[in-house]
Each structure stands twice: as structure tokens, then as C-alpha cells.
Amino acid sequence: MMLRTLVLSLSVLAAPAFADVQSCKNLFDRAPQVLDDLNQVGSQDYEKDHPGLGYSATFADPSSKITVFLYDQLNQNISPEMALESFKQAAQDIAAVAERRGADLAEINAYQTRDTSRVLPLRAEVETSDGLSEFLSVGIVDNCIVKLRFTAKFEMEEAQIWMKVLNDYLNKGYGSPA
After folding, report:
1. Tens digit of pLDDT for each residue in 2-26?
2. CATH architecture of 22-171
């Protein structure tokens, strides 16, 4: 009997520690239907078929598209290193998508903000030869990786202002935009 208890205890300890996706789900559920003048045009629950991939909400108008991804990669504790790896992969994805469109990328400007109050400190921005501005922000909110992807058909300076407003909005937990 004691051996059976020991084996059962060890098997429970050896099993992978799956994350509580509730924090990502809570963020997803709080996503607004309208973001300034952008309507939510879609949302996805990837957890059903691909646990760990989380959720997304997309907002768009004719000149821009913003997608917010919320996921935990089946980890209970999200580390800054995990967010950084996710950021690097997403930056590569931007380059691949631009290439599929037949666009050339200018240099990707990637950096980390020094403002420790920012929940999305990892940033990247690039202009493409087809006139699109691409932005990316990644960080950790409530033990959930949050990735913001913004594609706009307007000048980089205007897109940078939009990106600041969006980051401020997410930084306030979907509070009022600044």
C-alpha cells in the first residue's frame, strides 16, 4: 500500500504543470468591442484545439489592423525570458509576412523600454516598401504573455502615436486611453 502511494505521488509530481489559463481568459473577456474608432472584427479561442496558444482579439478599419494575443504556452509562471523569445519569434513573423506580400523591409527597430511601469516593454517597428508600418509590443500581464501586433497604412510618425495610445490603454488594463 505504501509503495502504491509513493508511486502515485511521484507520478503526480512528474506530470507537467499545466498553467491556469484563467488569467489569459480574464484578459480576453475584458477586451472591448470598440477601440477608439476601430471595431472588434474578430476573436479567437485557440485554447480549445491548441492548449497554450490562448486567445486573440482583432480590431480594424480600412487603414489599420490591431491584433492582441494573450497566451501562456502551458506554463504556470511566465518569465521575462519567455516573453523575449516570443517577441523574437513575432519579429521574425513580421519579416516573413512582409516577404510573402512581396514587400521589402526597412531595418527593424527593436528595443526594450526603460520605463518599468510598462507592461509591454518589448517593442519593434518597421516600415515596408509597400507603405505599411508594422509594430509589435510584447510583455507580461497577470502571468500571461500579451502580444500586440499593429499594421497600418499610414506614416510611421502617426503609427507611433497610435502605438503609444494602445500601449497606454493596455497598460491600464483596458482602462481609458490617454
Report:
1. 323 222 222 222 233 344 568 899 8
2. 3-Layer(aba) Sandwich (3.40)
